[in-house]
Amino acid sequence: MKLKNTFFIAFALMMGTYGISQEIENFESSVADCIGAVEVTNFDESNIQLPGNFGRVRDLQAIMPTVYETNTVWLRLEPTLNGEFGFEISSEDNINFNYFLFKDLTGNMCGDLSNGDVFPIRQDSSLSMKTKGINADTKGESKVLKNIVKTKYNDVFYLMIHSSSKLQGNFKVKYFRTGEVVELEENIQDYKSNPRYKTVRISVRDKETGAPVDANVNVNGLRIDEKLFQGSDFLFDATPSRYVEVIVNAKGYFLEIKGLKFNATKDSEIVVEIEKLAPGKLLKMEGLRFEQDSKNFLPVSKIALKRLLDFMVVNNDIKIEIQGHVNAPGYGAKRRVRKLSAERAKMAYIYLVENGISKNRVSYVGFGNTKMIYPHPTSPEQEDANRRVEIMIIE
Predict the structure, then answer these.
(1) Are 131 and 90 spatial neighbours (Cβ–Cβ below 8 Å)?
(2) Entry pTM
(3) More confident residue, 38 or 113
(4) Mind listing the domains of the chain with CATH numbers?
(5) In the list 74, 257, 269, 381, which could disulfide-bond 37, CB 3.0-4.6 Å?
């Protein structure tokens, strides 16, 4: 999808005076690792870019010690299908590749793989540039799947695409589904474990239509921090914290991070509405936080950074400019202020590039305090609104 006009995603940057700085390379969950797999929500086709590295761990080490991983990307596939499933993978840049398809049998696919307890159900381990996959021949109006995978509506698969080249190559994955596609009204995941607690239900909805949207979701504040969930509706224990931060990422939608309060003494529902990508929209997102007067991220920023990375992977035909802003009323357009804003924008840029996003798709700039939303802020909330990084989508 090419967007002809420009539009923005604004990231509100909450300043912190406490916490320990963390080097950017230590942030977790690369898309090159099973645990960082990008969820596929569009079963027409995926346009994927390899990151140029194998991630943090060599996922196949336990089951295929002779396979030397060089450059990989992982996809999580949930076809919601009673029937037969297939795909074709083609290189857009003429680089060699192979693939390995796994079925999640326990709900702990990446852990099973690390322990050597799961093996590919389909694979083409030959490294070549030719199109590969569980493909379909079109004959008249019917499609004949070769080497098909039979699937039930709740089956989950993980697809690893690997190249021996370190190039950040682009790939197209075209999907085929035959049979009954089950369009679930709600994909409810129940994670309640303590009957003494009330229930917090988190629902992800399309802002325009109100329809459920399957998404990658992180939830902080309910004693389940740093875990990734997939679905549209989730049930959790209402812990005494009374505050929750929800991070939502779905293909074709803006990244959304929302902090909300809830009443732990009764059942609660939190609805997170997400907007489809479209020209001219300006959205704010909490989650990227820096040390006071510093370019260094606070550790709590790692989930927001990972979601931004996923956003760039699943929407790999967009280019962005990262724009830094600071809250500095009365300072004038001083060089130090502009430098700090540029350094913060650059840190987000470095994170994306080091995790496989092409430099051709990302640029950065610092505006200092020249574009404050509130030139004379009168509250901490207005100061936080000034202190931000904006992501402008330019193509």
Answers:
(1) yes
(2) 0.58
(3) 113
(4) 1-27+279-395 (3.30.1330.60), 34-181 (2.60.120.380), 184-277 (2.60.40.1120)
(5) 74
